[in-house]
Structure formats: C-alpha cells, structure tokens
C-alpha cells in the first residue's frame, strides 16, 4: 500500500487525543503563569473532544451516524468558553491581590 | 422527538429556578442604584421564596408519580425520572434553602444579587445532575454546579487568601472535570451511545467480538473515579479541600462541603454503582482501597487541626470515605441480588452528613461577623455560656457527625457498616469476606478516632471560659438555618424509619427494580402528576 494513502484508523485519532490530553496535563502541572495553566486546560478538554469525535466515527460502528460524539464536542467547546471567562475574572482578582499572576507566589494557605 | 415537551414539563422546577436566578441578576440592576441592607434582606427573601417555590413545584407535580414509579419516560431519554432523582433533587432544594438563609448577612451588600443568583444556579446544577441519565446531560449538570461555585468562592471575600483558594479550586476542579470527560469518552466509545441505560447493557454483554473495545473499561472506571473523587474530596484528590475551605468564608465552605458532595455521590451512585457493576472485582477493590485511604487520611489529619474550617475540611474528606464503603458494597454484591442495601446506605448517609455539616457551618457563620469570622477552634471557648442555643446546635451536629447513638449520624454509620458486615457474612468467597471485614473494622476504628476531634470542639465550647466574646452577628438567617438543620438531625435520629424507607425506595428506583408488594402504594403522597 502506498504510504500516502494508507488508512488512518480510529485508534490513530485516539493516540492524538491521548497526546493532547497528556500535553495539557503536563502544561497544567508545570506552568506557573495562570494564563499558561488556562491553555493547558483547553488542551486537556480538546484532547477529550478528539476522543469523542473519533468514537463517534461511522467507521467504528456501521449504521451509526455518530452525532452524539460530535454534539458532546460542541457542548464542551461552549463550556470551555464559559470556563475561560470565569477564569479570566479569577485571574484578575488574583492579580489585584498579589500583583502577579504567578500561581507559585500564592502561599497564604498552608498547614 | 423534537416536539416532545415531556422533558420541559419534568424539568420545570429547575427551569423556574434558573429564570428566577436571572431575574435576581437583572432586577437588582434595574431597581436599586445603591444597594443597602434592606435590598439585601429583600433579595434573600426572594431567593429563599424561589427555592421554596421550586420545591413545591417539584412535590406537587412529580411527588406522587415517582413514589408509585408510574412516571416513566419512553425509551432511553436523557432524563431519569425515578424516586432516586426526585429524592436527590429534594435534598438539593432543602440544603439550598438553608444555604440561602445562611448567606443572609455574609458577604458584601453590593454583591448580594450576584451571590444569591449564582447560588440558585448552583442548586439548579445539582438538581440537573440528579435527573441526568445520559453522559452529556450529566457532564453539563456537573459544570452547571462548578462554574457558579467558582464565582461564589471569589464573591465571598476579597482578600489574598480567598483569591488563592479560588484559583486553587478552579484549576483542580477543571482538571478533574477534564479527567471525567476523558473517562466519559471511553464509556461512549465502548457503548456507542451516551445513554447510561445502554452503556450498562453494553458493559454487561461485553464479549471478545467487540474488537478489544471493552479493554478500555477499567481505564474509564479509573478516570471516572478520579473525576468524581475530586467532587466528593476523596483521596488521592482530597488535598485541595483544607486549603480552599480555609481561604473561603464559612458560608462558602459549607456550600463547598455540601453541593459538590451531593452531586458527586449522585453520579457515583448512578454511573458507577448502577451502570458499571459488570466490571467485576476491580471496581469494588478500587472502591475499598480509596475508602480506607480517604477515611484514614481525613480522620488522622483532622486530629491536630487548630483552624475550624481546615478541621471541617478533613471531616468532609473522612465522610466521603465512609460513603465509599456503601459504594463498594453495591459494586461487590452480585447483580442478581436485588437490593443489597449498599446504595441505600450511601443515600442515607449523604442526607445525614449534609444536614449535620450545614448546621455546624451555619452556627459558625452566626457566631462570627462579616469582617471577623470564627477561625480558630479556641475562639469557640465559652460559647456555651454566652450563646447557649448556638452552642447546643453545634454540639448536636458534632455528636451526629461522630455518630453518637440517639442522633442521625449513628443510623448512617450503622447502615454503612452493617451492610459491609452483612455482605461479608452472606458471601461464599473468602476474598470478599476478608476485604469487607477489614473495611468494616477500619471504618469503626476511624469512627472512634473521629470522635476525638468532634468532641474536642464540644469540650472547648462547654468546659473553657471565653477570653473575648464572639460578635454573633451572622444574622437571623444563619441562626434559623442552623436551628432547622439541627432539628432535622434530631428528628432523623429519633425517628429514622421513614428515612430508611425512603433510601431503600430510592435504591430500588435507581436500579430499575419494581417495588415489592408491601412498599408499592403505602404512604403515597396525595398529589397526582398531570
């Protein structure tokens, strides 16, 4: 088979989804800037989205439109937007109190 | 299908509550250019009335029908309208009503409409989660709860500690939601459907012919446990709780220990307990290990806390551990056996926990003032002399949380441990016997350890003299919320039978088992649906 037209299967999409998810998780764990962490959140959510769309694929199951998976992805995108809006408000509040958005600088709560 | 209005009719308490919440946002902007204490009182009354209205709407329209299990939606719709959903929506509304009262003087006057409106939306989130029978709906319900929670957290107070608590809670909550979503992805992949009913069927008929799809089931289970474990603050996702509670106000800490817990337990029951028992030994072993870890970490760490909210956070962690016992029982019992009691004991315990915790927090709110909260346990010294009723309320709640006999908490623990022991004695399998005996023993030991720190609070209140008097300016709302919760704890403690019946009925309903003869028509509320 010619490498250029070799079939891409559902599991390839799952790998992409897993890579996105792990990248996002690592990003959330290592970034110190709040906006950087927020980007990690988007990656993680979209990693899950890729999974949903891949599992909804008509190639995985016959007689199956797979619209459920795509619908979930649309809902999650809307949700991510709502979450980002709240996150920016929280980041602004954090900046007002700490004059930085470096999460490591917050160490009031320990015990 | 698209013109079907049944779902709208069923969800109308939620729809009404959301609309009233939006009206609070808009109305405050329209009417009063400069909010004052009177506006605050007005909006608190309005919000409380809105929750009460939703409660009556729910009761009159669906109470009788779900009681007789006669209201069944055709097909595998997105909604589960059974007695379990109804009971959990009622618990959410009851707890929400008390939370609104408790917040009657917490926070700032300028932000009162934002606070109350957002609180109502969070309650709607819990109610939607309780009625969801579908992955998308379930996830959106959980987010409908968590997004308002972030807003509420930073509306509480405006200092550095609150900002830090909010950001911690936000990022960990989003991470857990993402893990849950990723787990949902695998569930959807295995079943090819988002309906929980069909997912359950797919898991039960799993075979080699699926081309290896079913090997993802344990992965999905772990991700779901991770996502929900955060919501109920179970180990190893509990570490945020003490910090976040400490940074929040008492009103917000009580909200955090109640609403996400109800939602998390509801999803645990419906998604894990009912949909996934076909996963075999792995599921209940995971639940047992997490349960033992959670309650031990919670109780042992609580022993040397001096901050009141940190102590309550560890207490909330420990109680999640107890509730996981019931889940493990439900997962380990053979599916053929109809009512194992596992899920009903979780439901019972949730109810008991919610009102005891709410009562304690509301009393703490009452004892403090807006700019001077009761932070350390030592500050409670001598409260029994200066504020005897508040002290008595706190004492009742603490005794109930530690599980001392005539109070509600005792029945909750009795049901949980009793069911674990019963499973161990009824089973043939030596592994099951061993695991569940160990689980019950660890549970009882933990309850004994927990008594130490709950009784310490009572001891400080009753046997030490005060250095300075507490302001006690939390308002009548907080006082009456505390009194109502304590009264509920006492009433359930004295007359637990009704709650036991209800919990059993909820377990039967959520499992889709027809009611046995004796239970079917007895005590049906007179209201009729439609």
Rg over alpha carbons of chain B: 22 Å
Low-confidence stretches of chain A: none
Shape of chain A: elongated
Oligomer: heterodimer
CATH class of chain A: Mainly Alpha
* DSSP E strands of chain B, number: 0
Fraction of helical residues of chain B: over 70%
Please report the number of helical segments of chain A: 3
Query: Could you give the count of β-strands of chain A?
Result: 0
Structural class of chain B: mainly alpha
The biggest sheet of chain A amounts to: none
Which CATH architecture of chain A is right? Orthogonal Bundle
Mean residue pLDDT of chain B: 87
Q: What is the count of distinct domains of chain A?
A: 1
User: How big a fraction of the residues of chain B is strand?
Assistant: under 5%
Task: Please provide a written account of the structure.
The complex is a heterodimer of chains A (111) and B (530). Chain A has 111 residues and is an all-alpha fold. Helix content of chain A is 68%, strand content 0%. Chain A contains 3 helices and no strands. In chain A, helix 1 packs antiparallel against helix 2 and helix 2 (34-55) packs antiparallel against helix 3. The longest helix of chain A has 32 residues, at 67-98. Chain A is elongated. Chain B is an all-alpha fold and 530 residues long. Chain B has 21 helices and no strands. Chain B has helices at 6-10, 12-31, 37-67, 83-102, 112-131, 135-156, 160-191, 196-204, 217-231, 240-247, 250-274, 281-302, 308-332, 342-367, 383-386, 388-402, 408-426, 430-463, 475-494, 497-510, 517-520. In chain B, helix 12 runs antiparallel to helix 13 (308-332) and helix 13 packs parallel to helix 17. The longest helix of chain B is centred in the last third of the chain and has 34 residues, at 430-463. Chain B is globular and about 65 Å long. Residues 520-530 of chain B have low confidence and may be disordered. The interface between A and B is large, with 46 and 42 residues.
